[in-house]
Structures are given as structure tokens and as C-alpha cells.
Amino acid sequence: MGFSEEHWITAAAQGDKQAFAQLVELYHKRVFSVCYRMLGTPTAAEDAAQESFIRAFQAMPSYDPKRSFATWLLSITSHYCIDQLRKRKMQFFSMDNEKYAWLAPPARGPNPEQSTLENEKKDQVQDMLAQLKEVDRAAVILQYWHDYSYQEIAETLDLSLSAVKSRLYRARLQMAEYWEKLNQGPSINHPTERIAHGSPTV
């Protein structure tokens, strides 16, 4: 007999580990995606995803069923990643020759040349995201990679609606400026339009 997501949430809130395991299966891809975009490597993302799910399970008794479970879960995930970035920032930015080397995902696939080109573009996007403040980065990731509305981002990151709009506007400008530098000069399109509709979709 199949059960609905609501059933698993209710059971998990009562301490049912098997029910929560079903939720992990449903949401692992989304949680991992946020962690990867925030932290930059598959290993760090997997560790962060596991920790996020552990924290979510521990907090299940206090989950408000009136709130979107996805928003609640990604809020826990985003805040954990933000904390990790803040703790590690000084260490990362003190690495002179290896600055941002941790961002590059491993090359895979049967075509080495194509894999290299794809990884170079992914590296550029990750490098661009790394320029943003931690909370701004989370807001950008939730909007562009997870299609969150301003209201959903506000709920996820515990921000006001105006703060979300302000942070995203500032982040778009910063991303557009950095992207232009990476790609050697301005294009015909307005930079913020290019960032919003094409560049960060890697």
C-alpha cells in the first residue's frame, strides 16, 4: 500500500525513522543541490545534506504542518550551509595559490574535451557564486536553481520580503559584473538580463 507525503511527514513527526527515510528519498536531490551550490564540492555537499537531514529529523516534533515541508527543510539546509561557509571563510580566503580550487567538481564522462569545457563553465558559475555573501548566495540559489518565489525565499531564510528583493538585486549586479570580467568584456545584452535568463543555469 502506498502512502502520501503527508502521511510520511505526520509519522516522522511522531518519531518514525522509516517514514523520515521516505522523506529523505523524496528530498535528497533538492537538499544536495542547495548544498552543492553553496559549498562547491560533491563531498562537502553530501556531508552537509546528511547533517541537514539529521537536524531536520531532530526538529520534526516542532514542525508546523501549516508550513510547506520543502520550505522548512531547505531553510534548515540553507542555514547550515551558511554557518559552514562562515566558519570556513577565513581558511579558504587565506589560500593564496589554491584560492577557490575546492570549487571544481571532478571531470567525468567519455569525452575528456567536452567534460573539460563543461567543468570550466561550471567552475566559472561556482566562482561567481563564491563572490556573494553567504545569505545572498543562498537567495540566488533558491531563486535560480529551485524556482523559489520572493515569499518562499523570505520564509526559507527568515528574511523580510523587502530584504530578499534588495539582496537579490544587489547579487544580480555583482554577478553580472563578475561574469563580464570572466568572459572578457560586456555583451550586447544587459548584464542583469543575461544573468537572470542564461548564465547561472549550469
Task: Give a description of the structure.
The chain folds into two domains: 1-94, RNA polymerase sigma factor, region 2, helix turn helix motif (Rna Polymerase Sigma Factor, Chain: A), CATH 1.10.1740.10; 104-202, Orthogonal Bundle (Arc Repressor Mutant, subunit A). The chain is 70% helix and 0% strand. The protein has helices at residues 5-13, 17-39, 42-59, 69-93, 112-130, 134-144, 150-157, 161-182, 191-197. It is mainly α and 202 residues long.
Question: Can you write the helix and strand succession as a string?
Answer: HHHHHHHHH
The termini sit apart by 39 Å
The CATH architecture of the largest domain is Orthogonal Bundle
Regarding CATH, which class of the largest domain?
Mainly Alpha
- % residues in beta strands: under 5%
SS-derived structural category: mainly alpha
Tally the structural domains: 2
Low-confidence spans: 90-110, 186-202
Nearest-integer average pLDDT: 80
What gyration radius follows from the Cα positions, in whole Å?
A: 18 Å
Fraction of residues in helices? Answer: over 70%
Output the number of helix runs: 9
* Strand segment count: 0
Q: Per the principal axes of the C-alpha atoms, what is the gross shape?
A: globular
Largest sheet: none
The CATH homologous superfamily of the largest domain corresponds to Winged helix-like DNA-binding domain superfamily/Winged helix DNA-binding domain
CATH third-tier fold name of the largest domain: Arc Repressor Mutant, subunit A
